[in-house]
Structures are given as structure tokens and as C-alpha cells.
Input
Amino acid sequence: MFEEPRENPLPLTEEYPYMLNTGRGSVGQWHTQSRTREVQFIEDAVAREAYLYMHPADARAKGICENDKVMVHSANGQEAGFCVRISDQVGEGELYAPIHYIECNKLTPSIYDPYSKEPSYKSTPVWFEKEDGPGEKTSERGADTTGSKGGNGHVQD
Output
């Protein structure tokens, strides 16, 4: 059976201008690591903290450096913290996070394939803010949001 490709049910918007893509983090990681975490040499080689890849141009534009922490907000109303790894292996306007961390999967939408009934864990629109320190955040627009958040967590202009 052939069916024409469908439009993304959650396209990028002005409010959520970045696409978070997900997938395998390394050849040693499988699914939620429920089995591979038991193998010591894999455990030693795998990051214990959730991370994502960001394009160098996006990082520069937002004042983000390697290993900075960001809070990512998804269109489904969830947020999660990640350590940033800068890489030109992802496109501008895109972030990539391994599926092996709950932080990644909680951001993806509750949309299911009509045939297989598998969840759509592959991508979702997001925005992010740099975590500068305790209680201080910089929005994806680059402005300090300490004490100036509106109802949706964005800077009030």
C-alpha cells in the first residue's frame, strides 16, 4: 500500500523556531539502556548526562559554548535540561539529542502512526534558553529573562 507523505503535524512556528531531531547516540546505546547499561565498558563510554548537538552558528548567535547547559521547551508543553555539544553535523536551526535519555523523549509529541501505532519520537519543534547560573536564564532570543517571564516562559518585549 502506498500513501503520499504527510505534512509534519507539528511544523516550526515563530514561537518554536528550532527542530529537535532524535535518534541513536552511539553504537553502544540501545533504546533506554535498560540492558546495555549493565555492560561496564559501554557504561564507561556513555555520557551520564543528557546532551544535544547544536550547530556552531546557532551556538554563536546565542552565546552558547561547548558543555553549556540549556533548557529546551517543546510544543507539547514539556521542558528538559541538556548539556550542549557543538557540531557542524547538525543543520542550522536544528538540534539533535539521543533517545536514550528521558529528557529527550519527554519533549516529543504524543502522536502515533495510524498503521503501526508507534509513537512519533523522531522530531518536535522547540525553543531553548541558556542556563547561565542559579535562577538566571537567557532565552533563545538572547535576552536575560530573570524576573521578566510572561505566561509562556518567553521574554516579554
Q: What stands out?
A: The radius of gyration is 17 Å.
